[in-house]
DNA sequence: CGCAAAGAGTACCGTTTTAGTCTCTTTTGA
DNA sequence: TCAAAAGAGACTAAAACGGTACTCTTTGCG
């Protein structure tokens, strides 16, 4: 479906909630579950994944919790999507690793798919968590950034 | 997985093969199955879908077959992906229709997702079947087109 | 110390989607 | 009339998704 999974959507919503928590304030899985209306076990699973990939910093033990590992400006949609659902690859053959697609010899579209894949990855890279958690004004900034990066590339 | 399904990949490969068939020459499902090494029943299913959405023209009966309904330049990746796997929507809430996402009130990211979704759709709209079936030189054209369209939008 | 809160890791299961097949019908050229 | 070919739709096995449960480790605090 060319779609991000529901869990990824949840995960990014959690990140956005954490991005709006200023001053290094931590939130527990419990806090986030209640704030976002997502079942606690699911929240835990997502936060664990995000922490393992160094997007979140976790503190264990009593008075533990989670906070962003970097500023929201320094975390891109690409980082989050990759963490939550693995490498972004439109097709088998556009993944980084070698693929075992039986059509590879015949179809000849690998490079074209890779090109489209890169375009898409750029869109995600140029959209930060800060923008995702933020306002319409910040969306305009993203648009400008993307536009510039494409010009630079050409 | 932010991935196009295998069947969509196959479908586009079939379209590319038909794009390289010049002079209104028709190919049968059988021909395409043999040419691409994709099982016949699967090929049939895909061609039916593409024909129903007016990307292919079909002729029934003996000596029947399929050919492109328009030129390869006039068929975009967006047309094909949409036909083969339905509307492109990164999340439930970025589909055109109203969604029943329980987070809608809380997460506040709907507009941001829509924006990313539009960027992605533009990438697909600006890449034609001709480019997909064609050479590296044509890829550069796609890059230019996309870049221009983004500038215009800003 | 010992308890309770909180994260880490992993395994499990029901549901949905995907990938692929099969059967039957309709159309049409020879 | 027959055979080739498309159209429509049902059906099935396998994989992915969404969610849960269980066990273990870490740590603050009385």
Explain how this protein is built.
The structure is a homodimer of 154-residue chains. Chain A is mainly alpha-helical and 154 residues long. The first copy, chain A, has a single domain (6-153), classed as Winged helix-like DNA-binding domain superfamily/Winged helix DNA-binding domain (Arc Repressor Mutant, subunit A, Orthogonal Bundle). Chain A has 8 helices and 2 strands. In chain A, strand 1 (56-59) and strand 2 form a beta hairpin. The two termini of chain A are 30 Å apart. Chains A and B meet through helix 1, helix 4, helix 6, helix 7 and helix 8 of A and helix 1, helix 4, helix 6, helix 7 and helix 8 of B. The structure holds a DNA duplex (30 and 30 nucleotides).
């Amino acid at each position: 479906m060319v779609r991000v999974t529901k869990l990824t959507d949840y995960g990014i919503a959690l990140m956005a909630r954490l991005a709006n928590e200023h001053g290094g304030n931590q939130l527990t899985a419990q806090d986030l579950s209640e704030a976002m209306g997502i079942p606690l076990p699911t929240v835990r699973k997502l936060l664990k994944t995000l922490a393992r990939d160094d997007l979140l910093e976790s503190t264990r033990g009593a008075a533990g919790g989670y906070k962003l590992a970097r500023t929201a400006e320094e975390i891109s949609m690409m980082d989050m999507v990759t963490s939550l659902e693995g490498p972004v690859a439109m097709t088998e053959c556009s993944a980084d690793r070698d693929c075992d697609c039986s059509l590879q010899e015949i179809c000849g579209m690998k490079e074209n798919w890779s090109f489209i894949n890169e375009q898409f990855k750029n869109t995600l890279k140029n959209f930060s968590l800060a923008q995702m958690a933020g306002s319409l004004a910040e969306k305009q900034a993203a648009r400008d950034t993307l536009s510039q990066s494409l010009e630079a590339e050409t």
